[in-house]
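The records we work with from here on pair a chain with its fold. These numbers are not coordinates but entries in a learned vocabulary of local backbone shapes. To see the layout at work, look at the sequence and tokens printed below.

. . .
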Amino acid sequence: MDDTLIHDPNGGMPRLLEIMRRLRDPKTGCPWDIEQDFNTIAPYTIEEAYEVADAIARSDWADLEGELGDLLLQTVYHTQMGSEAGHFDFDSVVKAISDKMVARHPHVFGDESRDKSAAQQTADWEKIKAAERGAKAQTRTLDGVAVGLPALTRAVKLQNRAARVGFDWPDTSHVIDKIKEESAELVEARDTLTDAEVAEEFGDLMFVVANLARHLKLDPEDTLRSANAKFQRRFEAVEDALAARGKTPKDSDLAEMDALWDATKLAEKRAKNVSD
């Protein structure tokens, strides 16, 4: 078996495709890779996309290079499995996305004018996507919103679709009123209903919170990631303060940790005021 291409550092995309083909070879490939299918690989694909986003958020360009490679490998993995099953291959996937980009940018690759606002370009983009859904017999308003998206992201996409046909609150005051209503229903469910009903009411509350983010033109995933980072930063400051006292969180109690948490928040606020 000729391994020349596999060991060629300048082999480019053909090299990566051949590596994946060999890994999946039923006779000589890697047992783990051979056992995988679309469903088992999909979680890794999602994870790699998040790791790309994380590297970008940290402005770690060296890490981003590696993470982009990991994400590219996921595409190669899926296309190899698609080729084995006779569904598609890497070339057909490349052709499909290239054709789509050309079709969706008539103001760049066609004869439409480029002299339009970003809002108009977005509206045109959505019209083209709607026509594509129509060609796939996806005629209902919410058709085509991927089920596998992060739940908050999918909630916003569903709400955006509904808003385009007029199903939307006119301003944030109505959304906030709905949040209050759903919060009250959750409290009532907690005290009187089953676990399944409590979970349903909590989901309703989360859905309306996502809607508030949409009305405020915020990405709920981004804001929650920021909140997660802030929580981690502050809790680690609490741990550091406890360590200075020769203690760990297990040696402490809620009252002490809460006081250190408040002190951390105050220190952050003072530091921010100084920098401003």
